[in-house]
Batch of 3 targets.
Target 1
Amino acid sequence: MSGLYLHIPFCRRKCSYCDFFSVKSETPQVEAYPDLLIRHLAWAVKQGWTGPVDTIYFGGGTPSLLSPQSVTQILRAADQNLGIANGAEISLEANPGTVSPHSLQGYRNAGINRLSLGLQTCNNNQLTLLGRLHDRQEGLNAFTWARDAGFDNISLDLMFALPRQTTAELEDDLRAYLELDPEHLSCYGLTAEPQTSFQEKIVSGELTLPDEEFYADAFMLIHEKLAAAGYEHYEIANYTRDGYTCRHNLGYWQRRACLSIGAGAHSFHDVQWGSRWEVPADLDTYRQALQTGREPSQCLEIFDRESALRETIYLALRTRRGITDAELQQQFGCTLQQAFPEAVAASAQWLVNDNGRWSLTPSSWLLYDHLILPFL
């Protein structure tokens, strides 16, 4: 089985912190885009991509700018070209400022069975600073509408370590989120990504981010509050109720094949040791390639055994499950200790070995970027 990712590169307004490829939405462009995705699907199948797919993810950008009719059209094409497995997880990212009871019901009827709602925070001042389209009440309303539409698998985004954020404000966010009782949460510390307006404000001194101590305290506060409420911290930034892990994202961390279509999308092909492909982040280039029958993607990297092994470790240690020596033996013919004796020794204080299963604890994830370096 494999996954299918569809990048929807349209936003009504670019959030100040976002570095994903997106352009200001214009109705003719948005309405014409599904046809490009459908052409891309057909092209990919001709080039050898096969199904069925057991996860589909509409990401962006703002996928909730697509009409439910467009989502229906795209999913029908995916089923015709690749096949959609029974019980497939089909996710759509939605901005609370772009949905209504009617549109959410339409997405549910179209076949979307998992909704990722970009709430980010319930603090109105922070929502304004981040450039979001919604306020606290509109965000809460969007969640209620989604429940009313029949969504029983909802993920909420929570952003922390915001400018001038206090512990009390973060606790207020956590209380509000827990009252909603979503099945899944994605919790991200705010970072100043290059070439964003947010980074410009950080560089100029107009805004400052909390220090590392606040970040660490906030990370562990979220972990403790959500664990106490029954959520499993199954990946650095992700929490789930039992049975509601994001299967699509698990595919990324397990290096499963994923066909990614749309301008700015990145695919992983699992033939031999694997390869990564990119669709250039340019709508005109994407459109011209598909209209003239040319390959819309370009190869970024072809893995050999060594680089595939290193990436496997890098991705697996992001997850609480980690990786087993048995899995490494099957894939690469070695154990972690055999492949990286010096890295294992350097990380011994934080790296857990439970009967051949290697993993990091949530507290050691705070040092992930440092701890993973010896394995790269």
Note: The longest helix spans residues 27-46.
Target 2
Amino acid sequence: METLEKQSSKDSKEDFRLNKFLSHCGVASRRAADELIVQGRVQINGKAVTELGTRVDPQKDKIAVDGEVVQLPDKYTYVILNKPKDTITTVKDERGRRTVMDLLPLRGRFYPVGRLDRNSTGALILTNDGELAHRLMHPRFEVEKAYYVRLDKALEEKDRMKLLRGIKIDRRPAKVEEISYIEKSRRTEVGVVLHEGRNRQIRKMFEALHYDVVALDRVAYAHLTCEGLKRGEWRHLTKKEVSGLRSLVKLT
């Protein structure tokens, strides 16, 4: 099994900023962690702290969020899953529906990187490396995602250009970076590249132009694909692949 020794093992022997600790634990991004701290939702050794810049020693301090103890994982693990249909991209579902975690023999606090709605398929990274996960999803790093999209009717060229220039969904501008017709598809099948990753973004963009998305498959996340994996299958990322992801989002 391809796992990496905890990247933060050095940090765990010394104190460091509380927001960084929470980010590495996968609780939230550093900015969102600051908000949790200001709101008084973070406790150190049983006492709420609200001061930004507070430092902690994970070897000595007991840190909790909303009363739930959080800690760094013993090892960071990184996998890619070829997500099948009828599967929820979340850690657990209150309605008892199948989630991506039901497909993986992983234990502990793991997070899907990026969203795929229930009936979308394809490349999904999961990890317990919270800092990497948050950066991969943050818009400022512009991580490229590529999709295969099949529509209910041929995409007109004027609408393809609208998607490139940008349209509004949910009252906010949205655009694709690239969109191309797939050969011999009679223009009902297109390849789409995004830098954003908003909820149901591709479906909403096509719906705004009066197209229904019949099938949506993420063929690549960053430089990673599901080549060799059947639906529902997964594998561990190699050290080289993880290093590539960390370099992409400027994590040393």
Note: Residues 1-13 have pLDDT under 50 and may be disordered.
Target 3
Amino acid sequence: MLSHEECQHSCHQGNGNSGTGNHMPPCLLSAQQHSVVDLEKVCRVALMVTPQETGEVVDQAWEAVSTIRAILRQQAHPMTVTSQTVFLRSAEDEEACRKIFAAYFGDRAPATNFIVQPPCGGQALAIEAWALGGNGVAVEFPEPDVVQVSYEGLRWTQLSGIVPPPTATTAYDQTKEAFDEVANRLERAGTSFNDVVRTWLYQGGITEDEDGIERYRELNRARTDFFAEQESQGRMAIRRGDSIFYPASTGIGMAGRGLAVSCLALQTQRTDVHLQPLENPQQVSAFDYAKSFSAKSPKFSRAMAMVVGDYVTTWISGTASIVNSESVHLGDIERQTEQTIDNIQRLIGPENLERHGLPGAGAQIADLAKVRVYVKRPEDYEKCRVVCERRFGPLPTIYAQADVCRGDLLVEIEGVAFSRIREA
């Protein structure tokens, strides 16, 4: 179901999907890593593309786009890029990248985030992209940075690139305005926050003080207030049966003092689809953190598992070196990386999913389709990468420099895993 492919220097030539030949370039400079997730009638491709660290940003962006194009044209089905996150070295490079993507995608542009988190290898940019294809797959682009995908009774809505207006200057106001815009766009797309399974929050100055309060704590306060408002309006069910139901999420730093938000929502009437928030038995749930961490605790689940028939998709929230509710292995990037991966392994493993009422489900590290690794200090990159490559193997990965939500945490990792239900 899941295969990883990596190419540092060249691509195999393919026959293409049309009568024009579609020959692949004999050599692509980008370090390309991608996973192909074959779900029978539907195929997903996760692409993690990092260009060479030489040349202008325009050259690097075209190189990355050409690499994505080459990979997708080798697939068995015509593929459509539905979402992408562009990790930038500098905010000044965003406009040039936007022009390149506009020229390449035209009116079928994916939902796109531009995030100033410099690639750890020194490149001007790196791109994580998701593409989809297969029989019966329909992709719509109702408005900029909103993409809807339908197949087999599932309807996905991806929103990206949502930023608060310039008039919102405090962390609380930025978060509230951005979440209000998310709700508005979801409503225009015919869905609501009740259907959101995953969010990403990129916050500038995440650990900096603002009027004596850390900006991330104010983000948490605004998110809590927004969720309570959505629940009071009947647009979000926080309690579902015996479970607290919050989306999986990443809250991570970026350059500047702004905020960018994206989310993924799912709608279906299928009775064989089940969503289950996951918590780690060795960690206190984030929403149960003591007030010493935040006046209003972070409202997210450690992961979200989706069972569709025999398949399980698990979205893993931003995960760090935390045991119970305390940061551990302070100052040691290698041990923090090891602990973070241990936490992911326990979170997605069969024992934990059975504990959550999903016997036979669960994933291993080998079931990960991709990961993002956020490294706080540039000097820690190589040590962190060595640990990740040893633990993850040849897994499509992007390493980006970013502040983590606690000053004593040096690394954070997120990802997504695809697995199958095991027969009893």
Note: The first strand starts at residue 2 and ends at 7.
